[in-house]
Amino acid sequence: MKRKVFTLAALAVLALAAGCSKQRTCRCAVIGSPDVRIIKIESGECEQLRLFTYHTELDSLKTDSLLCTDYQFEIDTIYN
Questions:
Q1: CA 79, CA 27: separation in Å to the nearest integer?
Q2: Three-state DSSP class for 15?
C-alpha cells in the first residue's frame, strides 16, 4: 500500500513539473534582412511571433517582420 501511494505521489510531482511553463528562447530571422533576433518569451510558441517592435538608438520606433523557431541555429553550436 505504501509503495502504491509513493508511486502515485511521484507521478503527480512529475506531471506537475512537466506542466509548468518554461521560458523559451526564440531565434527569429528578419524578413528581407540578414539580421537575426533572439527573443525570450514566457509562454506560447515561437512560431506565433510575427512582428518585433523596438526603439532604435535615435529613439525612432521600428517594426521587423519575423520568421521564428525554437530550434537552435547552426551558429549556436559554436557558442555552446
A1: 14
A2: helix
Residue 4's identity, in one-letter code, is K
Quote the radius of gyration of the chain (alpha carbons, Å): 20
pLDDT in tens, 1-12: 666 545 545 555
Instruction: Report how far residue 20's alpha carbon sits from residue 9's, in angstroms, rounded to the nearest whole number.
Output: 17
Q: Is 66 exposed, middle or buried (0-12, 13-18, 19+ CB in 10 A)?
A: buried
Structure letter (DSSP) for residue 48 = G
pLDDT over threshold 50, residue 78: yes
How far apart (Å, rounded) are the C-alpha atoms in residues 14 and 42?
21
- Contact present, 30 and 36 (Cβ < 8 Å): yes
